[in-house]
Each structure stands twice: as structure tokens, then as C-alpha cells.
Fold each of these.
Amino acid sequence: MITREWCVERDASDPLGALRDQFILDDSVVYLDGNSLGALSKPARRRILETVDDAWAVGLVRSWNSAGWMDAPLAVGDRLAPLIGAGPGEVLIADTITLLLAKLVGAALELRPGRHVVLTDAANFHSDLYVIDAMAEHSARPIEVRRIDRRELTEHLDEDVALVEFTHVDYRTGEMLDLAGITSAVQGAGALMLWDLAHSAGAVPVDLAAAGADLAVGCTYKYLNAGPGAPAFCFIRAALQGQLVNPLPGWLGHARPFEFERDYVPAEGVRSFQTSSPSIVSIAALEGSLEVFEMTDVEHLRAKSLALTSMFMDLVEERLAQHDLEIVTPRDPARRGSQVSLRVDGAYGLVQALIERGVIGDFRAPDIARFGFTPLTLRFVDVYDAVELMSRVLADGAHREARFERRNPVT
Ligand SMILES: Cc1ncc(COP(=O)(O)O)c(C=O)c1O
């Protein structure tokens, strides 16, 4: 049986334990939502303040040159690259996932002109589905989007398929897909593979180079802790960079933006996928946040993440067995991201009642209480306390209060 004392001891010998001090966190709160909005780290805060107080307030427009702002989307992309197994010059920080998906889907379709089908996961994040549909609709030639059951991918792979887009870790269930195996199957059928790494980057090992991956996108405000609305990133395999054309060109993806030429000439490499001015303050926050990742490595993060999620599932089974809830996240570590999702009647009320008592998770419609486990900040004792509290809330029925029938705009 897992006891609180055992958790305290485990925290004391945790090789990542000291990294929690790099974050600004209220000790009375158990934060299980770093998979939605990551916590603020001290280095991120420092970099934001330096950028605002020195580079912006004092340097003013000169900082585009003197503070390296023009190169930040690529330079910080290079620092993020090791977390996803990318090489130098393969990652650009820009836009949002949805906008980068639009660009990459459009570009990929042009690279497979003889093919007219895009496959995506019927259970994919809704924004991915919307933008793929829209890009197909606005394509110069008829494109058919098929929303498939991802387990049936191989049955759909044929010579008509131009592109497959999947999310690596399912935002709802936390299931992690076989990135290398799927990439190889898709490429074997002559199509391009585009991964959404929203719930992977900074949380689970991703090796895009080893998988020979073509294209990927991800965000920096979740496990990468770059702050609300921080920009996304895209990965374009080096060998594809000269071939892919950004369908939403803008001045900062031009080879010579300050020549103000009338016609668009793409910059070399992944920079051509930049469209507009970069969000410098947010990129500075990301840079600071990456300093914390550079104090450890993804293998240590993964080991702790799996230990936390396993312990949470064990405790849920041990302490909450009498309640009608189901763990929908795979038990198999090879198929598990860094979150655990519970299907439970009254899931929204449960999450709200927990938040009111200091344990912050989130709710994903229609019936999922979702808990993210950020190995940089979480202690084993936090997991223990969260399940204890959940047990009390479920036993009292506090989650069934009528006021929880009305949902907040953000759940
Ligand atoms: C899997 C996934 N894809 C895409 C998005 C949308 O990201 P953005 O707001 O950067 O477009 C999210 C947001 O949470 C997500 O979880």
C-alpha cells in the first residue's frame, strides 16, 4: 500500500526534486494542469523582465538588431530542438499550432500533386480537424479529407493518400501513438506524415530524426512552460525544406525583408515558414523555460513522469474503487503520455470541487476529468494528496452540487 510517508521519502531521493525550486509555485496548490498551461519558472520570469525592461524599454527598436530579436525564432528553435530529436535549423518558433498546421498542410499537398486524400484521426483535437478541412476546401484541386479510426490507418493507406496528420499524445485519453512505426508506414505508402506534438514536447521523449519524420508542430505554453498564448513551433525535416512552399507568405519569411521587394522570394530553410513579426516577449519566456530543461534530460523526465502517472493510477484503483469511474489512459507505459484521464459521471463538478480545494486539473467534454503530470514541478506527495482529496469529494458528493451544472468558458 502506498502511504504518504513513502511519498515524502521518495521525494527526498528524487533526482529531479530540486528543479521544483526553479518555479514560482504556491505550495498549498497541487498543480495537475501543466498540460494545459505550464507553470512560470524563475528563468522565464527573468528573461521576460530583461526583455521588457532592458531590450524593449531601453533598447527600443534598436533591439531588433542588438538583442538578436530577428534571429530569435530560429535560435530558440535550435534550443528547443533536442527535446524533439530535431537538428539545427529544423525548428521555427512562430504563430500557433493551428496556423502552422494550415501552412504545413497546404505545403504538403503541393508536394504530392498526384494524390488527393488527407487522413486524420476522427478523435483528433478539433482545431486540427477544422483547419485540415479548411485547407482542403481552399485547395486549388479537389481534396478529400478522411477522418479515420487511427487504429485502422494501414487499411486506408493507398496511392491516393498525400498526407496523414495525427496527434502523438491524445489530448483526451493521454494515449501515446507509435511515432516511428506510423511515420514509417505512411512514408512507405508514399505519403507525408505530419505530427501534432502539443502534448508531447517537454513531456515524453520524441525522436523525430530517428523516426525520419517529415513535419511536426507543437505548442510551448503547455509542458514547455512559455506562458499563456506563447507561440507554437514547427519542424520541417532538413531534406524537405527547399521543396516545401509556405502557402501563407509574409514579409519576415522573405529572403530580404528589408529590401521591401514587391515579389515574394522565400528565405532559405525553415525561416520561409515565418510569416509575421515574432512574439518576442513570449519567445524570451520560452528561452528562459528551456534553461530549466537544460538542467536535466528527457530520459529523467520520462522516468519520473511514468512513476507519477503509474502511482496516480495505482492510488485511484486502491482508494476510489467503490466509485463509478474508469481510467481511460493506457496502463502500458509505451502507450502513455504524461497525463491520466478519468471517465466519471459528474467529471466537470469533480474538477471544479477539486480546484476549489487546491488541486487543479481540467475537464474535457463530455465526461473526462484530466490530470497532467509535469515531472519538473510535481512531487509524489502531491499525487498522494490529490487522490486523498478526490476520495473525500467523491464520498461527500461535493461534485454534484447544482452550481456545477453551469460551466466556465474555460473548463
Ligand atoms: C492537440 C492540440 N492541437 C492543437 C491545439 C491548438 O493549439 P493553438 O491554440 O496553438 O492553435 C491544442 C490546444 O490545446 C491541442 O491540444
Amino acid sequence: MITYRLLLVGFGAVGQGLAQLLRDHGDQLAQRYGAALRLVAVCTRSRGSLYHADGLDPAVLLDAMLRTGHLRDLPGQTSLAILDLIERQAADVLVEASPTDLATGEPATSYIRAAIARRMHAVTANKGPVALHFAELRRAAATMSVYFGFEGAVMSGTPALRLALSDLAGCEIIELRGIVNGTTNYILTQMEQGHDYAAALAEAQRLGYAEADPAGDVDGHDAAAKALILANVLMDADLNLSDVERTGITGVTREMVAEASVAGDRWKLLAHIRREGRRVRASVAPACLSVGHPLAGVGGVTNALTVTTDLLGDVTMIGPGAGGVATGFALLSDILALHRGQA
Ligand SMILES: NC(=O)c1ccc[n+]([C@@H]2O[C@H](COP(=O)([O-])OP(=O)(O)OC[C@H]3O[C@@H](n4cnc5c(N)ncnc54)[C@H](OP(=O)(O)O)[C@@H]3O)[C@@H](O)[C@H]2O)c1
């Protein structure tokens, strides 16, 4: 049995999703895989932070969040700075689930950098550090012989990155086409049912799929960051966010969607990454797909990725692209991938 002490940064939807998995499946994971996952620290911005070397009970943490919305009344060491915990190697794995900042990648990037420098493994669900600093962080992790995992950064717990990186190894990836933003796919699916854009967006906001300021989704910023990650991680590109051509869905009208439906076609916001000569190009734009296309039938908040390879042709993955537990699972799958490499 190998014990992994986990330092969890962020206890929102994703952090709590992981805690639910540890609460409900921790014993079984230990038995089945020989990996004991011990949460030793949980840190938030404003809801309190806790550390206990012997471990914190995920059930108690979740219960406190449910009852009080914070962790401040629980026993344990509470006046903590994340960088101090990292500095004194209080954990084996940094599990990073703080909010995404696509302008700076912070605070996540600083935490991950510090963890790797202290020979801690790092896993994150956060697009920021991967979109902005992938090459640097991968190099640093290799230098320090630690694991750097970020499966949740694209398509949440659906193993798009790992499947393409590990299980399609030996194939050349020629092209990637994906529905990687569930909010816009939900809006377009609603528009197929006759709603106009404004009504579909309002419904997405009511259900919590879209933010009050929906620009990050509907203008394609979120999808562009994921396209960038797919290009740099899976196709060895060296692109920046500004290299990704980006058009959102605000120009797609109910009439365009209705007209396409008559012909059996469907509008999707597609991330498209392809080789053009020696260059890799990445774009995000609405595309009208014929009904037989593998991505045309993917509706609602579901995500999908078609990987075009030289040896297998097209391989398509369809699955959840968001959700606390689904993304908590992405973090868990990274920790188990780390464990497979150690065991
Ligand atoms: N939710 C999803 O479906 C999903 C899917 C894929 C990827 N992700 C990514 O996963 C990450 C977490 O998402 P989430 O939905 O769990 O977000 P969330 O619900 O907003 O939770 C964020 C957590 O991070 C804490 N935090 C904020 N600033 C911090 C700082 N400077 N240092 C330490 N902790 C800080 C927050 O504390 P306070 O509550 O005190 O502010 C909160 O506990 C994001 O990067 C997101 O993009 C989420």
C-alpha cells in the first residue's frame, strides 16, 4: 500500500466533488489499487483552511460546508499559507482546484511551480496554468521527476487527454475536432428546439450552466483555451492563446439553426486543431455539421472530441465536460495515473 498525502487547494464544486469520491470510494480504492489517499490539507480563499498531519475526514469537511458554508469551526491547524505547506512538504501531491484565470494563470501556477520545485507531484483541473505555462511546467516536472497531471482541464473527467496521449501512442494525430464547451452546446441545442439565442442563454443561466456574464463561454474564450491545450499537449504545438482564431456563438441566429435543421444539419461550436504543413493551427468557430458527422448528435452540455489518426482513422470520445464530481474524478484519475507509475 502506498499512502499519498493530498494538499487540496480550492474546496468549491470540484474540490468537494473529489472529497465526495474520497468519502464514498476511498476504502475501495485502497483495496483495489493499493493507493491510500489521505487528505491532509484543504485550503480556500475565504471559507477557512485546515491541516492535520494524520488526515482530515472528507465526510466531516463536506458536512461542515453543507451546514455552515465554511470550514472555520472544525478542529485542526487553521492559520495556514499554502506556500508554507508546500515549502515544508506537508503533502506528497498538490491537488489544485482554484478558479481559472486565463490572463495570468494565477494563483494556480505559483502553487504548482512551488510544489514541483519541492518535489511534490501536482494535479490540477485548472485550464490557466496548462494553457499559459504547459511547456515550462512539463519541463520542471520532468527535471524534478514528479508527475504533473491536468486531465480535468479539457472535458472534465472524460479522459480525452489521457486516452489520446497514452492509449493512442503509436498513432500520429492529424486533426482534432471537439465540442469542448458544454454551455454553448446547450444553448445551440435549445435553439434547435425553436428558442432564440437570448431565451436559450437565459435558460442556461437559470440552470447554472452559464455565468451571469456569459462572455467566457459564448465568445469562445473557454473553448479557445481548451483548443490551445489540445494543440500543445496532443500535437506538440507551441501556440499562445492569441494564436487561436476565435469566433463565439453570438452570431448564430434561430433562423440559421432552423434552416440547417431542414437540411438535417446542426450548428456546433467546434474547436478545430489541424496540421497545415509544419504548422499546427487551432481555431474555435461555429460550424454547420451534417447529421451523419460523429459530433452532430452530441446535444446539451455533453462534450465530445474526435481524434483523427493515421493508423486508426477517427476515434471519438463523448462524455461529461463539467460538474463537481465529474471534474473531481479527473483529479482522482490523475492521482491514480501517478500511482500506476509508482506502483
Ligand atoms: N466546475 C466544473 O464543472 C469544472 C470543470 C472543469 C474544470 N474546472 C476548473 O476547476 C477549478 C475549480 O472549479 P470550481 O467549479 O470548483 O470553482 P469554485 O466552485 O469557484 O471553487 C473555487 C475554490 O477555490 C478557492 N479559491 C479562490 N481563490 C483562491 C486562492 N487564491 N487560493 C486558494 N484557493 C482559492 C475558493 O475559495 P472561496 O470559496 O473562499 O473563494 C473555492 O474554494 C477551476 O479552475 C475550474 O475552471 C471546473
Amino acid sequence: MRAIFAESINPENPLAGLVVGERPDPVEPEGWTTVRVTSSSLNHHDLWSLRGVGLPTDRLPMILGCDAVGIAEDGSRVLVHSVVPDPADPRGYSLLSERHQGTLADRLAIPAGNLVVLPESISDADAAVLPTAWLTAYSMLARGRVKHSDAVLVQGAGGGVATAAVILAHALGKRVYATSRDEAKRERIAALGATALAPGAKLPERVGVVIETVGAATFEHSMKCAAPGGRIVVSGATSGHLASVDLRRIFALQLEILGSSMGTQLELDELVQLVADRGVQPVIDSTFDFADARSAFERLATGDIFGKIVIRH
Ligand SMILES: NC(=O)c1ccc[n+]([C@@H]2O[C@H](COP(=O)([O-])OP(=O)(O)OC[C@H]3O[C@@H](n4cnc5c(N)ncnc54)[C@H](OP(=O)(O)O)[C@@H]3O)[C@@H](O)[C@H]2O)c1
């Protein structure tokens, strides 16, 4: 079958190990099923994998991808929850493409319990962005107890997780502030209902929840923008994972720094329902045909994207 996979690891030049080619059909372990994938989307996770983060060389070749929409064996249109129970992993789970083959292929083996039936109102392209970036954003807002906050700050607003967090927080009726390094992206984020700011800019108010995926470049600002009792929810560190923290601020303002990864299947169900009920429209940066996946990866690696990159299978 056709597959987009990592053949080798290269920390400096991740695209060097990327192959768009052929891999054997999936073999289903007991209790698993096969989905014929119709759409998927890219995540920064795929670049980390090509750099060898979370993907040791002894697991190569590995089909990349955590997101998939497809047709299940019973003919229903389904979304794949890519968090797979994994007793061998210290987290107790792994994401598709870490230990089990990923979603960027014609067919995907997945535990039968990891499928969510899609409502007709959500298109394949919109659904394809939900299982990783959007689920992460949804879960981060929940973990940050957003319902107890009127205002939210989202750092690095152009990214997949970040645009999702802006749209979801806005849909939940919150005042949303968002930073981006790029002026054109700031204009686009403002059109989604956020007050867009340059990185490090002073906010008109302190916020109850900060959505942090950028890491080192923005973390100090995130700490400064949190209101007393505020929650800084961290799910990524694109710009670097070592940040210094003024501990006095944490205890004086009784701040919480919360780690977050992906989300539960129940949260994915809730997210699908929310998107369907409120007609929430994900931001799609661009769509590429499967055969042109290398161009899609090149675009992701530039960091110039706004929203999600979808792959049409
Ligand atoms: N833990 C989890 O479950 C989980 C799930 C999904 C993602 N993640 C992580 O979260 C991060 C974001 O993922 P994604 O898929 O949303 O990535 P993405 O779509 O590639 O977006 C990354 C965004 O980060 C910002 N950025 C990058 N470098 C920066 C820098 N040096 N300074 C300031 N901003 C910078 C950019 O925003 P601007 O250009 O607007 O400034 C960029 O759009 C990644 O590190 C990913 O691994 C974790």
C-alpha cells in the first residue's frame, strides 16, 4: 500500500529520512481492526519523529501520522483516536507512529475501541485535524479549568494546536489573547475573534489560562500574563524545552503549571459533538494530495503555516 514513512532519522535535517513510497499492508493484532484512510493531517509530532524524538532507529521504517479519517470495516465513516494503550511505554500509552504504524497510509490497523463515528455534517478535511491538534487544545482548556476563567492567552497563535485553542476558547465565550511572531498571522488570528499581539507584548489584563506550546521563547511571558491562581498549561516546546521560571511568582500568585498530552477518547467524542453542534470551522492552512506529501512536510517545517495541513488520500 502507499505510505509516508520515516526511513532514517536526522535531527538537523528531518526531511532527509522522509519517504513517500510503499509499505506492506497492516497486520491486525487481536481486537484491532483496519480502517481505509481517506484523509489525514500533519502535526509537528511528525517532524519530531523524523528528528528521532520518541522514535528510536530500531523501530524504522515507521509510517508517520497521528490523524486519520476513514472507512471502518462495517462501512461507517470514522475518526481515529491515536492514543493506544501501551504497557511497554512509561506513559502507559503511545501515539500511532511511535510504536505502532501511523495514519499516513492507505490502510491503518487500530484497536477497535479507538474509533469515533463521525456526524455527516463534519467534512473529511475538517475531521482530519481533530484527533491530535484539536484534541490537545480541547484537553488543555479543560485541564486549565477554562470554565472558571474569563480570559485566555494562546502563545504561537499560527500553529495547529494554537489556532484550535483560539477558536475553541472563543466559541466558549472567553476573551482570547494570542501572540504570533508574524504580522500577517496576527491579522488572521484577529479575524478569529482574538486580540492579536506580538510575542512578549503587555496584555490589557492578566488571564486565568495560558495555552503554551511554544516553550522557551514564550514561557517567561506566559508566567507574567497569568492572573493570581492562573493555570499555565503546557503541551509542547517547539522553540526549546529549557525555560527559566521565577519561583517567587509561582508561590506569590499561587500559579499552577500543568502538563498536558493529547486527550481521552471521551474528550474526542465531546470535541466532535461540539464541532458538529456549533458548526465550528477548523482553520486549514492547505491541502495536499498524498503523492505530494513531501511538499506538505516542507511547508510544515518552514513554520509559516496558519492552522492545519491536510493530506487527501
Ligand atoms: N503533548 C501533546 O499531546 C501535543 C499534541 C500536539 C502538539 N504538541 C506539541 O505542541 C507544539 C505545537 O504543535 P503544532 O502541531 O501545533 O505545531 P505547528 O502547527 O508546527 O505550530 C508551531 C507554532 O509555534 C510557533 N513557534 C515556533 N517556533 C517559535 C519560536 N521560536 N518562537 C515563537 N513561536 C514559535 C509558531 O507560531 P507563530 O508563527 O504564530 O509565532 C508556529 O506556528 C509542538 O512542539 C508539538 O510537538 C504536543
